Amino acid sequence: MYKHSTAPIMAASSILRRSVFRTALAAPSTTVRLRNIPAATRFFSNTSAFMSPSPSSASPQATIATGSLPSTIRHPRVLVTGSLGQLGSGLVKELRSMYGNENVVASDIRNAPEDFKANGPFVFADVMDYAQLEGIVVDYKIDWIVHYSALLSAVAEKNPALALSVNMTGFQNVLELAKVHGLRLYSPSTIGAFGPSTPKIDTPDVTIMRPNTIYGITKLHNELLGEYYREKYNVDFRSARYPGILSADTPPGGGTTDYAVDIFHHAVRHGHYDCFLKKDTRLPMMYLSDCIKGTVDHLVHPEMLPQAVYNIAAVSFTPEELASEIRKYLPHFTISYPDPAHPDFRQAIADSWPASLDDSMARRDFGWKEEFGMEKMVKLMLDKIQAQVDAEKRIAMTNGSTAAAMSA
Ligand SMILES: NC(=O)c1ccc[n+]([C@@H]2O[C@H](COP(=O)([O-])OP(=O)(O)OC[C@H]3O[C@@H](n4cnc5c(N)ncnc54)[C@H](O)[C@@H]3O)[C@@H](O)[C@H]2O)c1
Ligand SMILES: C[C@@H](O)[C@H](N)C(=O)O
């Protein structure tokens, strides 16, 4: 177990979040080898820890000569993979507000919209290409990687071979980079890493884990490999098992919990939703801003925590409970469910996952706490989507009147 005292850590964490990182560089003419120094240490003016890595384990690639460089104050430079997905763009925005646009490099295998690219560095990066990723790490002097590239549960189940490559090879690449270049690596896991034999209620961090989906198998593999690198090579690997994430502005990427986002769009636009899960399927869920806040708090925590992987959770509900909450604002909203004789393929995935998580270790170790319960989340989702619909109508009316004026 890593020893830690929470009070100074939380204080340091809040200083860090406010702005500045102080890097105490070694004495003049000293050569500092980065490997085997947890990335956390390098930003917290702990000169003695910084200067005392084990020379025997140093890696030539990760050696820097400090020469007569003065002490500097700087932010960490963060690479976010998969930054165009449901979660990535919000995280990039938050990190840029903390560290400055130039210090957060967004990447994806897709091209980004121009407005996204205008806000800070964006690079094309296929996580299966180690050399390409290493070029980015070196060119941008990256300190931390947040690894968001993945195929989610439903998409993965439809294309297992691709899921194995992206989810496992992609992760192995960033993990190896973290080892070679002394980086901190945050890579989320999921409730999907659990399986049908896992205890379903208040599932703890450490329990039976025998996932039976390709998504879950790849994610559990990543958890175990990350822990191995942490133990064996002192890689600062951090992970949290996210539940299903709800967001109004960014669409979900093809998971089993996507129904809990789709339902809002259908409720506001059409007043009806055909749910692909059974009405009593209870799953853990969380609002996007809570997920981002929990991720940032975990990421910036100045020390390696006692566990590499933590459950984080906010609420758990069924489709029927969600529909009832929506009906408080849209009384005419209706929902239908699949014919029990012909369940959707995602039902088996959902049935293999926990209904609720025990996240007490995350609350204890890095102060995890959600802001959004079900009521607040439903109200905000509906407000945001209604605002989108109103904006679309205004644009359509403007376009319509322009077209009418042109044809008159
Ligand atoms: N969204 C959720 O509800 C949820 C829940 C639990 C865990 N997670 C995890 O959080 C992370 C982010 O999830 P998300 O919802 O944003 O996913 P998403 O599917 O919305 O986005 C994933 C991104 O990865 C990119 N990508 C795919 N293949 C790639 C490749 N070869 N190289 C580089 N990029 C590639 C995609 O273009 C996409 O932008 C994933 O690891 C996911 O497993 C998400
Ligand atoms: C739970 C999670 O990992 C994702 N939302 C999925 O359903 O695949």
TrEMBL record:
<dbReference type="InterPro" id="IPR051225">
    <property type="entry name" value="NAD(P)_epim/dehydratase"/>
</dbReference>
<dbReference type="Pfam" id="PF01370">
    <property type="entry name" value="Epimerase"/>
</dbReference>
<dbReference type="GO" id="GO:0008743">
    <property type="term" value="F:L-threonine 3-dehydrogenase activity"/>
</dbReference>
<comment type="function">
    <text>Catalyzes the NAD(+)-dependent oxidation of L-threonine to 2-amino-3-ketobutyrate, mediating L-threonine catabolism.</text>
</comment>
<feature type="domain" description="NAD-dependent epimerase/dehydratase">
    <location>
        <begin position="78"/>
        <end position="313"/>
    </location>
</feature>
<dbReference type="InterPro" id="IPR001509">
    <property type="entry name" value="Epimerase_deHydtase"/>
</dbReference>
<comment type="similarity">
    <text>Belongs to the NAD(P)-dependent epimerase/dehydratase family.</text>
</comment>
<comment type="pathway">
    <text>Amino-acid degradation; L-threonine degradation via oxydo-reductase pathway; glycine from L-threonine: step 1/2.</text>
</comment>
<protein>
    <recommendedName>
        <fullName>L-threonine 3-dehydrogenase, mitochondrial</fullName>
        <ecNumber>1.1.1.103</ecNumber>
    </recommendedName>
</protein>
<dbReference type="InterPro" id="IPR036291">
    <property type="entry name" value="NAD(P)-bd_dom_sf"/>
</dbReference>
<dbReference type="GO" id="GO:0006567">
    <property type="term" value="P:L-threonine catabolic process"/>
</dbReference>
